Amino acid sequence: MLDVRRLRLLRELSHRGTIAAVAEALVLTPSAVSQQLAVLERETGVPLLERSGRRVVLTPAARTLVRHTEVVLDRLERAGAELVRARQGLAGPVRLGTFPTAARAIVPAALVALAERHPGLEPMLSEIDPARLPDALRAGELDLALTHDYDVVPVPPEPGVAVEPLCVEAVFVAARRDTPGDPGTPGLSRWRDEPWIIALPGTSCEVATLRACEAAGFAPRVRHRVDEFATVLALVAAGQGVALVPRLALVAVPAEVALEPLPVHRRTGVAHRAGAARHPAVAAVTAALRESVPPDLTAAP
To answer: CA–CA separation, 294 vs 286, rounded Å?
Structure first.
């Protein structure tokens, strides 16, 4: 019978690309990972890895095995949920990943509700780059996580990860009140000649700004690159440029800043390992998060 732990290593290799990355993520040595994969190869009786320069790549048989592994791990998550439901009450740690604006606007109220309903549950919060969420969930570093994408930058599904919609928020263009842009131009193109403040390269917020401007017929002239929205709003107030800002980031907006809604939205979801939706702790945290969505946001069904 194939060992699930070795199957998990093969699945991780398919997602992370290198044995070194798998070893780092799972706190193992590269030689230990290689040895376990070699044992798995002997157990299956077929080649699973082949050399490509200095890297190893999965063979077609290995890719088939990974697809079956996703199903196996999904069923194991479901089995674990059934066992937890057989016990009385919820207790122990549950690890929640989040992005900064949700950590401020949604998570605190959810933690208060959880403490009242399930005092034995120990939520453990970590801010994490959304790009790392799928790997962190699959590796067991997190139990669930708040994630987001923009309707102009949809995120493709990740193997082994399920996402439940939570809420939808409007996106605004933030500009200093004495920076009218081109009054005769409608929509986002009104600010085509202004300097822009956008997020760091490779982030979904950066790509969303670039896509929205592209749809409006121009490429933004980038002056500053900042991720933290409070700093972005302070720079806008200082006349340093204009920026796109989602609703959850609109806390203590400086008086000098004017906001105009755009036909762009950011969607927040609760992500967890496939098969874990009915795990009592995951379900309890998800329910508390749903109840903590600010009332002026559109709640997802």
So the answer is: 15
Q: Which architecture, in CATH terms, is 88-166+267-299?
A: 3-Layer(aba) Sandwich (3.40)
- Pairwise CA distance, residues 10 & 286, whole Å: 30
What Å distances lie between residue 36 and 4, 10, 50, 106, 251, CA to CA? Answer: 11, 9, 15, 42, 50
CATH architecture of the domain 4-84 equals: Orthogonal Bundle (1.10)
CA–CA separation, 292 vs 106, rounded Å?
5
At 168-224, the pLDDT tens digits run 999 999 999 987 777 777 789 999 999 999 999 988 899 999 999 999 999 999 999
β strands within 85-202, DSSP E: 92-98, 121-127, 144-150, 161-176, 195-198
Question: Are the C-beta atoms of residues 66 and 10 closer than 8 Å to each other?
Answer: yes
What is the spatial distance between Cα 131 and Cα 129, in angstroms, rounded to a whole number? 5
141 phi, psi to nearest 5 deg: -70, -30
**pLDDT tens track for 129-153:** 887 888 899 888 899 999 999 998 8
Beta strand 92-98 with 144-150 is: parallel
Task: Compute CA 162 distance to the chain's CA centroid, rounded to the nearest angstrom.
Answer: 11
Q: Which CATH architecture has domain 169-264?
A: 3-Layer(aba) Sandwich (3.40)
Domain ranges of the chain: 4-84, 88-166+267-299, 169-264
pTM, 2 dp: 0.71
